[in-house]
User: Fold this.
Amino acid sequence: MRPVDARAVVGASRGGYRDAHFMSVTFRIATTADVPVLREVFGREPSDEQIGIAGGDVRRARRFRELMASALFMPAGLAATTVAVDDGRVAGFVQSGSEAGLTWGVALGTLRIFGWRTAGFVRRDRARRSVHLPHPPGAFHISELHVLSSRRNQGIGAALLAEAERLARGRGHTQMSLTTTLSNPARRLYERFGFATVATREDPGYRAVTGIDGRVLMVKQLD
Ligand SMILES: CC(C)(COP(=O)(O)OP(=O)(O)OC[C@H]1O[C@@H](n2cnc3c(N)ncnc32)[C@H](O)[C@@H]1OP(=O)(O)O)[C@@H](O)C(=O)NCCC(=O)NCCS
Assistant:
């Protein structure tokens, strides 16, 4: 494991380094033993997008988020997940690859959560799909980036991006990509890190369901 001084990667951030204590973060690929802490980092609280797609039903949106976590942390997902460890504890993770698609497990789990309301869920999920932006072929695509809520704004997200870039370069990629919502404050972090918005997709149906205007595709050139 390689220790990283997170100040080096967040040094250029607006307002400079915001945490007083010296942070020495190390990185490694996730294992099945990490799943409970990865679930904790991913968090139980659904996003505005998830609440919207659940028809405003926060309890079901929470169960749906748990279902998504199960899909993310299957063995193939773990192999594509890098964890940041600080003070011996996992403080965040980055996952690469395509965004989780519809598997039988997710389809059955969705039916179990929404029951007869599944038709409404599918209709609202279609609105989400209308703003989907495919990532550029051959790009190292970041599908998930999360930091433990109590450890945010200390440079761990930037350190995970730097580690993802190291992996991407090592594997010969010339581009990194990610998608997020127009309203996510994480866009500032991505821009600071060299990502630029290359496509925006807005949709009135998506706005009606989620209260968010749309989604963006962001790309960082590595050559
Ligand atoms: C995005 C996230 C990983 C950043 O991790 P972090 O360790 O706090 O990041 P850093 O300390 O390196 O940088 C802080 C930057 O995060 C962004 N940020 C701040 N609060 C945020 C929030 N609630 N949600 C998302 N991003 C946020 C800002 O850009 C901030 O920099 P700024 O204040 O100068 O604009 C973390 O906030 C998180 O896990 N958010 C929830 C999940 C999420 O939104 N993931 C991204 C999905 S595309």
